[in-house]
Design brief:
alpha/beta, Rossmann fold, 2 domains, seven-stranded mixed sheet, five-stranded mixed sheet, 14 strands, 20% strand
């Protein structure tokens, strides 16, 4: 069966349009990358509520903070590697310390900026944002969920970081699927192990489910779209009921989803954990498909990780 392919950043663009139509306080700021981030869709429809700050990510965050103090709901938008890296101090001290209502969108997350090399591949953004008090970290798995996540972020109070991919990835959720920040979605049920994934790699987890089922291995698949606050109940239930965990993400496993899940299990439910993600390295240039294969982010690597986790029970 053919699967529709769309970038999750498209979902962000549609989410901004939905918010713009329902809430006049929603504003969008961009650091001179509006076409790439899809914030240009909002600019075309609501030009008086769009501000191109230029290639000045720190200024963009400071401006967004000021606008939030005036009662506006600013979405500060650029590539994830730039906003999480260059503007981290402003996000920490100006936004999170004061718990301001600023939404931060990091596009081109994970391996989707593969051809641009390590300088543009956002792999540390989840860890950098997750460590900040008051920050929520959301990593949608497809374009439909990205739209829902954008709208949900706009409707809650406080800082949010939303991560989107550049390349088209499979669209496998539906408009009717439940989405709530901080509540994981169980996509498949199983008893032998659990794959907890975030972002477009969730689709690879579903492919791994089919491959494992053909071998008689029953796996639960959880879409952990919210890295912070993590759905601890879903993690602990999976640990108790399946006894083995595999995490999967297009990010550094240190400080990312793998780290977050392991911290919970170490405190409450020690369980064998295997982590599929980027293992403390910078990546080479290449297409997302080439990078996924070289760095072990496809379904077959998830299958191997599940078998290793089960063997450690």
């Amino acid at each position: 069966m053919d699967v529709k392919m769309l970038p999750t950043r498209d979902g962000y663009g549609h989410g901004l349009l939905e918010l713009g139509a329902t809430n006049p306080d929603v504003l969008v700021l961009d650091a001179d990358l509006a076409k790439s981030t899809r914030s240009d869709w909002f600019a075309a429809k609501y030009p008086d509520r769009f501000f191109d700050i230029g290639i000045a990510e720190q200024d963009m965050i400071g401006t967004a903070a000021g606008l939030s103090l005036g009662g506006k709901i600013p979405f500060a938008t650029t590539y994830g590697v730039f906003v999480a890296g260059r503007a981290w101090d402003q996000i920490r001290t100006t936004v999170c310390y004061s718990n301001l209502n600023v939404k931060i969108a990091g596009a081109h997350g994970g391996i989707s900026a593969g051809g641009d090399g390590a300088t543009h591949q956002a792999l540390e953004d989840i860890a950098l944002m997750r460590v900040l008090p008051n920050m929520r970290v959301i990593v949608p798995c497809d374009a439909i969920e990205a739209r829902k996540a954008t709208v949900a972020a706009g409707n809650i109070q406080g800082p949010c970081f939303l991560r989107f991919a550049r390349e088209a990835t499979p669209v496998f959720t539906t408009e009717g699927d439940f989405f709530a920040i901080g509540k994981a979605n169980v996509l498949r049920n199983g008893n032998d192990a659990t794959i907890i994934a975030a972002g477009p790699i969730v689709y690879e987890a579903l492919q791994a489910f089919d491959l494992l089922a053909a071998e008689g291995i029953s796996v639960r698949v959880i879409n952990m779209h919210t890295i912070k606050p993590l759905d601890e109940d879903a993690v602990l239930a999976a640990a108790r009921e399946t006894g083995a965990i595999v995490t999967a993400e297009e990010a550094q496993i240190n400080g990312g989803l793998g780290g977050a899940v392991s911290e919970i299990l170490a405190r409450h439910q020690p369980t064998p954990v295997e982590m599929v993600g980027i293992a403390d390295t910078f990546l080479e240039c290449g297409t997302p498909e080439e990078l996924a294969e070289k760095y072990g982010l496809t379904a077959k690597y998830l299958v191997n990780a599940v078998k290793k986790a089960i063997a450690r029970k």
